[in-house]
Predict the 3D structure of the following.
Amino acid sequence: QVQLVESGGGLVQPGGSLTLSCAASARIFAGNVMAWYRRVGENKRVLLARIFPSGTTYYEGSVQGRFTISADSAKNTVYLQMTNLKTEDSAVYFCNKWPDRPEYLWGQGTQVTVSS
């Protein structure tokens, strides 16, 4: 049973902004490093950002300075605020624990399309 629900995607123009949400079960969220990924190609997910239980965050180079990851432990929810979106940011976005493992289940993701 998948216990990750991503939402907030949509169509946005280049330079625009979106905020994604990921509602996780307490079992997945509590005490774990949570991360956002996006699918590249047919079935490869790349790491974008991660947040530690302490609140420390790390970003991959392509989104550094444009994306912000945050979490609300009371809601077991992780957010990804995306600004200055580019066409190459178009993808399906997922959240999960980090580091991801082959046995992890994934949610449906949320589609982000950046286009004029």
In short: The longest strand covers residues 44-51. The CA atoms of residues 21 and 84 lie 18 Å apart. The two ends are 37 Å apart (CA to CA).
